[in-house]
Amino acid sequence: MKIAVIGAGYVGLVSGACLADFGHEVRCIDRDLHRVEGLRAGRMPIYEPGLAELTARNVAEGRLSFEHDLAVGMKDAEVIFIAVGTPSRPEDGHADLTFVYEVTREIAQNLDGYAVIVTKSTVPVGTSDEVERLVRSLRPEAAFSVASNPEFLREGAAIGDFKIPDRIVVGVEDDRAREVMAAVYRPLFLNQAPLLFTDRRTSELTKYAANAFLATKITFINEIADICEKTGANVQDVARGMGLDKRIGPKFLHAGPGFGGSCFPKDVRALIKTGQDYDVPSRIVEAVADVNERRKRRMGRRIIAACGGEIRDRVIAVLGLTFKPRTDDMRDAPSIAIIQTLRDAGGRVHAFDPAGMEQARDVLGDVTYFQDPYQAVAGADAVAIVTEWESLRALDLKKIHGLMRTPVLVDLRNIYVPDEAKAAGFTYIAVGRGDLEA
Ligand code: UDX
User: Fold this and answer.
1) Could you tell me how far CA 83 lies from the centroid of its own chain?
2) Helices (H) and strands (E) in the chain — how many of each?
3) pLDDT of 188
4) Mean of pLDDT values over 279-306
5) What's the pLDDT at 436?
6) Domain coordinates of the chain in residue numbers?
7) CA-wise closest residue to 242 among 390, 432, 418, 437
8) 200-231 and 127-138 helices cross at what angle (nearest 10)?
9) Long-range contacts: 225-230, Cβ < 8 Å, 24+?
């Protein structure tokens, strides 16, 4: 099928490349000419393992191309995916749909023959209805359908999540759209990926409900970790004991500094706003947002406490800045609030991250960056592990100990074994594992 994907970002580019890999003919459209030219030259605008190779192969085999001009890109397309950004509006947390409606107007102007317009971006309940109303108002005579098809892609695992999804959710209001969308995903359907058809509003809400639930699960285990610290229990063992119950499952039960990223914080805020708009407040999700935000700063204060409560002019090394491993994305990363707390207390921050330092420079204030974790810890009074990058999981603790001024290790991702860290001479502080007293 001929498919147009509008927005060559985390969602649109991965979706476009994977749809091309299914055998469809895909045009990825982006209004950022620099980004389009980069993609045509094989330069990826995002850090996503495997994406460069997947893109190159499909471009070489003639199934994937990049276009700056939307009219050209969507010509003859049977399906047009809207995969543009829907960031949080700072003032009220509602999803900013400016780009979605701008693109919708452009699609309407260029519609030429039946097409299914698909909202793939995460959009508040009712947006797809609004897209349909807008197109209808601009082109009353045009033949088209609007569908919702939210993505469930994790950064760093997006290609696998697209190609081997737990489920595909498609919201449609007519049979023709249903047939077209079934054809889009037939290659996946054949390998048993459940293709769930709902109405559009149900599809839109399913996305928010799924992300808010995952954010709730993480926040729940983070609060259990707090109780573990006071009661001397081990949160990793509690999580294991919980997760063996098939109704709970082991995933997303890793206690840490709080969740970040471009989705959970945004989607939790948007769902809260939807609840407020319809006067059905979702108090659990409101608590999740509040608890998570407080936790990030609390983790900064935990580092300060581990240094005896005073860090003025002392050096704190922060290893791992991105919101999770295998990405360069700093959006809402816990490291931002943690480092702000350290700097507010007069600390000097040394930082290392395998992939995120370029992006970090734009969001972190006065931080000194190093290309190597050992350089970052030299002369430091404490080292905090904030993101569980593979390359941070087997540091030479004895070497680290020898480089530091005072050997304090705050492991916010529980990647080290307390006894080993203590045997290496560290004052070791973790999350939900034993007492906090250094
Ligand atoms: C998430 C959803 O997983 C994905 O399905 C959706 O489409 C987009 O949002 P993503 O934001 O890329 O994906 O990352 P994810 O792996 O979900 O982690 C989100 C945050 O939760 C990260 O900051 C991560 O460190 C944190 N997290 C995750 C935990 O603190 N503990 C966990 O057990 C899991």
Assistant:
1) 15
2) 18, 14
3) 87
4) 97
5) 59
6) 2-198, 213-436
7) 432
8) 150
9) 225/255, 225/431, 225/432, 226/432, 228/432, 228/433, 229/431, 229/432, 229/433, 229/434, 229/435, 229/436
Distance CA 111, CA 114 (A): 8
| Residue positions annotated with a catalytic role | 263
Name the burial class of residue 61, with classes exposed (0-12), middle (13-18) and buried (19+) by CB atoms within 10 angstroms of its CB.
Answer: exposed
Say which CATH topology domain 213-436 has.
Rossmann fold (3.40.50)
Q: Which atom of ligand 1 is nearest to the CA of 218?
A: 31
Atom 9, ligand 1: which residue's CA is nearest? Answer: 263
21 annotated to bind ligand: no
Helices 283-306 and 200-231, interaxial angle, to 10°?
40
Q: What is the mean pLDDT of the chain?
A: 96
Alpha carbons 421 and 166: distance in angstroms, whole number: 38
Sorting pLDDT into bands at 50, 70 and 90, what band is 435?
A: low
155 lines ligand 1 (CB under 6 A): yes
257: Cβ below 6 Å to ligand 1?
no
DSSP sequence for 31-68? S-HHHHHHHHTT--SS--TTHHHHHHHHHHTTSEEEES
Which residue reads 């030299």 in tokens? 378
Torsional class of 50: left (φ above 0), alpha (ψ -120 to 50), beta (otherwise): left
Q: Where does the pLDDT of residue 89 fall: very low under 50, low under 70, confident under 90, or very high at 90 and above?
A: confident
Interatomic CA distance for residues 96 and 297, integer angstroms: 27
pLDDT at 82 over 90: yes
Distance CA 278, CA 216 (A): 21
The CATH superfamily assigned to 2-198 is NAD(P)-binding Rossmann-like Domain (3.40.50.720)
pTM flag (> 0.70)? yes
Ligand 1 centroid – CA 237 distance (Å): 21
* CB of 66 closer than 6 angstroms to any ligand 1 atom: no
pLDDT at 207 over 70: yes
Instruction: For residue 166, give Cα distances in angstroms to 188, 195, 345.
Output: 11, 9, 45
